[in-house]
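Worked Example 4.2. Consider the chain below.
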Amino acid sequence: MTKWPAAFARFWYQFLVGDTPELAIGVALIVGASWALSRTVGAAPFWFGPVAVVALLSVSLRRGASRRGG
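Applying the procedure from the previous section yields the following structure tokens:
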């Protein structure tokens, strides 16, 4: 019975973080920044999420290409 929580935590870590923890951290930062902007501005910043995700994806792709030597 004590192995189940550890296996459950390992599964969710692998599912959410996987091989690139910087993407998981980036998504968490995007969600937090969106929440902060919605509290500050008073309206949901519908433009911030897609722009931030595209920026995060481009940084991730650039890092992946540089790791492979391309």
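Residues 18-68 form one domain. The longest helix spans residues 21-41. Compare this with Example 4.1 before moving on.
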